[in-house]
Amino acid sequence: MRSLVSLVAAAVALAATPALAQDCDWTPERAVTYVVPWGAGGGTDANSRMLASLLEKKFGVPFNVVNRTGGNGVTGHSAIAHAAPDGYTVGAVTVEINTMHHVGLTDMTREDITPIALVDIVPASVLVKADSEYETLEDLLAAAKANPGSLTASGTSQGGIWHLALAGLLNAEGMDPAAIRWIPSKGAAPAMQELMAGGVDVATPALSEGKALVEQGELKALAYMHTDRMKALPDVPTTAEVLDSGWTLAAWITISGPGGLPDDITCSYEKAVLEIVDTPEWAEFKASRGADVVKMGSDELAAYMEKSDAALGSTIQAIGLAK
Amino acid sequence: MPTDALAAVFTADNLTVIVIATLYGTFVGAMPGLTATMAVALLVPFTYFMDPVPAISAITATTTTAIFAGDIAGALLRMPGTPASAAYVDDSFRLSQEGSARKILFVSLLTAAIGGIVGVAILALAAPQLARFAIGFSSFENFWLATLGITCAILAGSGTVAKNFASLFLGLFVASIGIDVAVGHPRFTFGNVELYDGVSFIPAMIGLFAMSEVLRNARAGANVERLTLSLESVAAALSGAVGAIGRLKRVIAQSSILGTLIGALPGAGADIAAWIAYALAKRGSKTPERFGKGSIEGIAAGGSANNAGVAGAWTPALVFGIPGDSVTAIAIGVLFMKGLTPGPQIFTNDPTLVGALFGSFFVANIVMVFTGGLAILAATMILKVPRTVLMPMVLLSSLVGAYAITGSTLAIWIVLVLGIAGFFMEENGIPMAPAILGIVLGRVLEDNFMVSMMKSQGDLVAFFERPVAAVLGALTLFLWALLLIRAGLQLTRGRTSAHLTPEET
Fold this sequence. Notes:
Largest sheet of chain A: 3 strands, parallel
Distance between the termini of chain B: 60 Å
Number of helices of chain B: 21
Family (chain A): Belongs to the UPF0065 (bug) family.
InterPro entries (chain A): BUG, Bug_dom1
Helix content of chain A: 40-55%
Shape of chain B: globular
Number of domains of chain A: 2
CATH superfamily of the largest domain in chain A: Bordetella uptake gene, domain 1
Number of strands of chain B: 2
Structural class of chain A: alpha/beta
Pfam families (chain A): TctC (PF03401)
CATH topology of the largest domain in chain A: D-Maltodextrin-Binding Protein, domain 2
Oligomer: heterodimer
Structural class of chain B: mainly alpha
Strand content of chain B: under 5%
Organism (chain A): Acuticoccus mangrovi
Signal peptide (chain A): 1-21
Number of helices of chain A: 11
Largest interface: A-B, 49 and 49 residues
Number of domains of chain B: 1
């Protein structure tokens, strides 16, 4: 009896959904929790806080940013994925949703969240110290080929996205992924500190993170792992230009909801975010960080994440970190 | 530059922002469980709508006061707001129990302001040179620095060498719980996923200090003779504090300079700064036996060093755009948002802004004296509450505060377990401060050790190959030798060393 009732209810809900989805006029009536799986002060945090404050203005209810850090991102991502899909919890799902399950940290995948919109794309770089003997990426790769294992690099944890950037690049160029040894660090800032202190030879964080030190002439950017050059640093060649393999790698940040977020809620958020990224405030914020405005809605983002998942999966497999 | 910068600092807007930010910082810092980082992160959306100078003023004023205000809960309730306050919490709590809560909080406040001002002065004079030195620190130097920090905990701890070590090792053990930094293996988690992140220091600190204090009071039960504590008058407290500071000029100067230098190093921060300054003050003191049992000298040393460290932490952030801690990481984000790129050029391209930043830091430290003073007057009223009412309230806020910071019930268990551990440690004359430092620095120590070993591929000689690392390493080994000799002496003297441990009465 009960199952019949729920069946009818489900049927009614199903019938009602398309009509509601057209409108995209759901609005939150109380405070929304915005989960950030990474620490205060990082790029994900900065982007998410900015977006949260603009969403707050748009919807007129508070958007409380909560940093649920730890477990290499597992904690925060599961807080987003497993929240009630009622629109009152959204969060910054990042590229790690596609790497964590490959390296065996969790069973959670992009299927467990509902993508809303893309917030940022952050391509990797290859940085060396200003007085380094390597002038080009080719120089560096030749040295690594001649003496595998003598050079060290850093940027993030073992198996983290910037590690995949370097190991994947070496692998794509037909070299041993460990030809440049990876030294784990807690993030891009400590890694650049190590690079400046001469503790490692190379760092491969986001170019946006190294931009200031490159502009000051403290570091040299040998490559930008992207298809187009960065507007703020037009002299840095892209890996797509200089490498035969055309290897590129970028991290990304999204705003996403829990798995099974109803369509009307998803599309209301999508509409709001897509309007926000067109505002001059957002453009100014992005420009200040040396980043370009990206605009991608839910469906396109889902397809993008699927592609990224496959690519990262094969990289992780190739460099022997898959579990 | 000076006139432009001064004009930018002394606008009505900027001064209003500083006053509001110091009030906000005091509130957040005094609440156990809320951190300076959280306070600054919450400020970011507001700074977006501010001009660059007020935006930076808001951040500096908030952090400066939050670090000081951590001392308020430490002195009154034995709940240090930050690990930087943990170095001298026993001193300040003991003295406030003896009826001079206001005096020692004024000492904390004034030394914090002095430390902050010395820090800014050093920054204004030598930030680029200091940053050039700090940027040369790799994992090898950071490892020795952390080692030196925990060695100071042994050196300055109030127990015997053996008991200080016991406390430290307990802290290091707690720090080893969770996912191993280098290879990602869970340790001592017994399959509990929430323990993967390790034991965060705020619940640990609340447990070891506040919870154990509640337990001690509970055992004393109905025979608590003094139901309320006396409070000295404001005038007496102020003149007492100013007098004490006058006598401690040398210690405060030494700790402020040291605090700034250590704060500027990327691997260290206000907490290591406070400990090393505390240990050094104890070495140079005429009354080292008072340390840990109510030494104003210790409070002055630690209190000035940690606020100086806050100023020092801006060095690598401002000069190279490399943040030393999460507060400056957020501040860099705000600078970028305002179209300002931190770097050596910022001193030549935006001298007004740099001048205004230093000026605002300076003014924030002055304004803090007044807003912090008000906070002290308001907060010390808590001592008028009878202990039988206060202690259950402390218990409640300990548990709620711990839960609030992590959002998980695990934090409550951590408070309870470490509270009981702290109770028994205290019963046996084992000081708790070294354990806190062990918890805070354990991960830093292990992380830098493992990273260094990976770099050198297992070659221990590499720890002495870089010049700065060699100096720090030699200094640490020298201190260890000294400690072992002292421990040996204490053992051979046997019973006579018992007078060194405070027996609870």
